[in-house]
Specification:
By secondary structure, the chain is an alpha/beta fold. The protein has one domain: Ribonuclease H-like superfamily/Ribonuclease H (Nucleotidyltransferase, domain 5). Helix content is 47%, strand content 18%. The chain contains six helices and five strands, in the order E-E-E-H-E-H-E-H-H-H-H. The protein has a five-stranded mixed beta sheet. Helix 2 links the parallel strand 4 and strand 5. It is globular and about 40 Å long. The chain starts with 6 loop residues before the first strand and ends in a 5-residue tail after the last helix. Its main location: cytoplasm. InterPro entries: RNaseH-like_sf, RNaseH_sf, X-over_junc_endoDNase_Mg_BS, X-over_junc_endoDNase_RuvC. Its EC number is 3.1.21.10. It catalyses: Endonucleolytic cleavage at a junction such as a reciprocal single-stranded crossover between two homologous DNA duplexes (Holliday junction).
Length: 173
């Protein structure tokens, strides 16, 4: 018996650019639905957060994902950047919670290890693998590729029946 396909919304949070990507699950053939970037660099702080929140709500309403996958914050150099990024993540998580969509979170290392095979892969490597895995004719923009990579990571883990606790231990496959 084949499992029912599920829609996965991947989100790469950013305070200036937030990437998003929607795929439909499938162990051997995930299908690309849509991706893009929410650009808020020209807005003030609170307007940025409002715009990100409203945009994520619209994407959820339009594409009806079964799960929202958000990349965990990993900033080790600048505490102010970490706080700003955390605020953007907060409105994304809030949008998913308000829309009653389950949320999964993965570290950048988990995502890169799953998609590229190296936990510290570069952005161009992620873009290349996302393009190939989804059979896209063009390379997605960096932030959109990162969001699609989050969705693909979750799809891979779920197709293998792995849970979040197992994932946090750095399981390789």
């Amino acid at each position: 018996m084949q499992k029912a396909k599920k829609r996965i919304l991947g989100v790469d949070p950013g305070s200036r650019k937030t990437g998003f990507g929607v795929i439909e699950s499938g162990r051997f053939n995930p299908n690309y639905i849509v991706s893009g970037v929410i650009r808020v660099e020209k807005l003030s702080g609170s307007q940025r957060l409002k715009n990100i929140f409203e945009s994520i709500c619209q994407i959820i309403d339009q594409y009806q994902p079964d799960v929202v996958v958000v990349e965990k914050v990993f900033v080790y150099k600048n505490p102010k950047s970490a706080i700003t990024l955390g605020q953007a993540r907060g409105v994304i998580l809030c949008a998913a919670a308000i829309k009653d969509v389950p949320i999964m979170e993965y570290t950048p290392t988990q995502v890169k290890n799953t998609i590229v095979g190296k936990g510290h892969a570069g952005k161009t490597q992620v873009q290349y693998m996302v393009q190939n895995l989804l059979k896209l004719t063009e390379c997605p923009q960096e932030d959109a590729a990162d969001a699609l990579a989050c969705a693909l990571c979750h799809d891979r883990y779920m197709s293998l029946g792995l849970d979040a606790e197992t994932l946090s231990k750095g399981t390789k496959f």
